[in-house]
Amino acid sequence: MVKVKVYVTLKEGVLDPQGKAVEQALLAKDFKGVSDMRIGKYMEFYMDRDDHSDRNIQSMCKQLLANPVIEDYRYETEEVVHQ
Amino acid sequence: MNFAVIVFPGSNCDTDLFHAIKDVLGEKVEYVSHQEHDLEGFDAVLLPGGFSYGDYLRSGSIASFANIMPAIKDFAELGKPVLGICNGFQILLESGLLPGAMKRNAGLKFICESTPLTVEHNETMFTNEYEMDERINLPIAHADGNYECDDDTLARLEANHQIVFKYDDNPNGSKANIAGIVNERGNVLGMMPHPERAVEALLGNDDGLRLFQSILVNWREHHAVTS
């Protein structure tokens, strides 16, 4: 099995109202030097080794997991052995 | 004229739309399940507001893969009217029938209030009963209504007169105050405000009624009764 971890964030240049609010909250709590907070989504799932390919995962991200109009994505994969 | 109101799991303005068409506009209307595959016999398709699939992942994203969606795309290709309101607009964006995407409201709050709008374009099949630049009030009720698109898309929307409604007092951070847009052909309208909640003066506001009347007027022009 392959474990796939997908990270989705708003594109650079697209204002992130949630990120801005949380950044302001950190600064208000006196955490200094915080900037450019972006809030995103994390998804993880498993795939059969035979079905998994970069092309396949990219296609999933483009078609459903991220909205390419406003979001960027990146992903990591790792081999896992199921019990 | 025969209207279809598409019902997704989590739609919650379907009954309001049904009522607006049947009891106020006085035309035929049927509910059509998201599981159906065809829209034979319908003259207009309405995608209601609500929270289809609980807004999981992104508002409208799961619904955009519903069984009925290919039929809606075919229906739109034929040039027939497709109207998406609120969550219906989000579904049209996610399915690619309209350009752009929705973000969380700039103020992060769910906003439920009557909001002033300007009719930016009254030569569409959805707005022919309004005056150009007419100011109207319609209710909004959403958390993800902050319209976003890239600058090229915005330039195209403006050049093709695809921006139909603008907020007078931008409540949610939408780019260029956009409240509603049509596709290039002009037969697919998506809007965040709820015209179906403003169709009876007795209930406080009937500014939304003319939108449905516009669809009917346009349809009658193209289907003149021959006796």
TrEMBL record, chain A:
Q: Which domain of life is it from?
A: Bacteria
A GO biological process of this protein is:
'de novo' IMP biosynthetic process
Answer whether the UniProt record assigns the keyword Chloroplast to this protein.
no
Q: Which GO terms describe its molecular function?
A: ATP binding; phosphoribosylformylglycinamidine synthase activity
Kindly list any coiled-coil regions of this protein: none
Q: Supply the enzyme class, top level.
A: ligase
What are the record keywords, sorted? ATP-binding, Cytoplasm, Ligase, Nucleotide-binding, Purine biosynthesis
Q: Please give the pathway this protein is involved in.
A: Purine metabolism; IMP biosynthesis via de novo pathway; 5-amino-1-(5-phospho-D-ribosyl)imidazole from N(2)-formyl-N(1)-(5-phospho-D-ribosyl)glycinamide: step 1/2
Q: Which catalytic reaction applies to this protein?
A: N(2)-formyl-N(1)-(5-phospho-beta-D-ribosyl)glycinamide + L-glutamine + ATP + H2O = 2-formamido-N(1)-(5-O-phospho-beta-D-ribosyl)acetamidine + L-glutamate + ADP + phosphate + H(+)
Q: Which Gene3D superfamilies match?
A: Phosphoribosylformylglycinamidine synthase subunit PurS
Output the Gene Ontology cellular-component terms. cytoplasm
Compartment annotation:
Cytoplasm
Instruction: State where it is primarily located.
Output: cytoplasm
Known EC number = 6.3.5.3
Query: Subunit info?
Result: Part of the FGAM synthase complex composed of 1 PurL, 1 PurQ and 2 PurS subunits.
Function per UniProt: Part of the phosphoribosylformylglycinamidine synthase complex involved in the purines biosynthetic pathway. Catalyzes the ATP-dependent conversion of formylglycinamide ribonucleotide (FGAR) and glutamine to yield formylglycinamidine ribonucleotide (FGAM) and glutamate. The FGAM synthase complex is composed of three subunits. PurQ produces an ammonia molecule by converting glutamine to glutamate. PurL transfers the ammonia molecule to FGAR to form FGAM in an ATP-dependent manner.
Protein family: Belongs to the PurS family.
This chain's protein is named Phosphoribosylformylglycinamidine synthase subunit PurS
Organism phylogeny: Bacteria, Bacillati, Bacillota, Bacilli, Bacillales
UniProtKB/TrEMBL annotation, chain B:
Question: Pathway listed for it?
Answer: Purine metabolism; IMP biosynthesis via de novo pathway; 5-amino-1-(5-phospho-D-ribosyl)imidazole from N(2)-formyl-N(1)-(5-phospho-D-ribosyl)glycinamide: step 1/2
Where in the cell is the protein located?
A: Cytoplasm
Q: Name one GO cellular component term.
A: cytoplasm
Q: Pfam families per the record?
A: GATase_5
This enzyme's EC code(s): 6.3.5.3, 3.5.1.2
Q: Which residues are the active-site ones?
A: 86, 194, 196
Q: Which GO terms describe its molecular function?
A: ATP binding; glutaminase activity; phosphoribosylformylglycinamidine synthase activity
Q: Which reaction does it catalyse?
A: N(2)-formyl-N(1)-(5-phospho-beta-D-ribosyl)glycinamide + L-glutamine + ATP + H2O = 2-formamido-N(1)-(5-O-phospho-beta-D-ribosyl)acetamidine + L-glutamate + ADP + phosphate + H(+); L-glutamine + H2O = L-glutamate + NH4(+)
Keywords, A to Z, come to: ATP-binding, Cytoplasm, Glutamine amidotransferase, Hydrolase, Ligase, Nucleotide-binding, Purine biosynthesis
Q: Quick one: a GO biological-process term for this protein?
A: 'de novo' IMP biosynthetic process
Q: How does it assemble?
A: Part of the FGAM synthase complex composed of 1 PurL, 1 PurQ and 2 PurS subunits.
Biological role stated in the UniProt entry:
Part of the phosphoribosylformylglycinamidine synthase complex involved in the purines biosynthetic pathway. Catalyzes the ATP-dependent conversion of formylglycinamide ribonucleotide (FGAR) and glutamine to yield formylglycinamidine ribonucleotide (FGAM) and glutamate. The FGAM synthase complex is composed of three subunits. PurQ produces an ammonia molecule by converting glutamine to glutamate. PurL transfers the ammonia molecule to FGAR to form FGAM in an ATP-dependent manner.
Q: What is this protein called?
A: Phosphoribosylformylglycinamidine synthase subunit PurQ
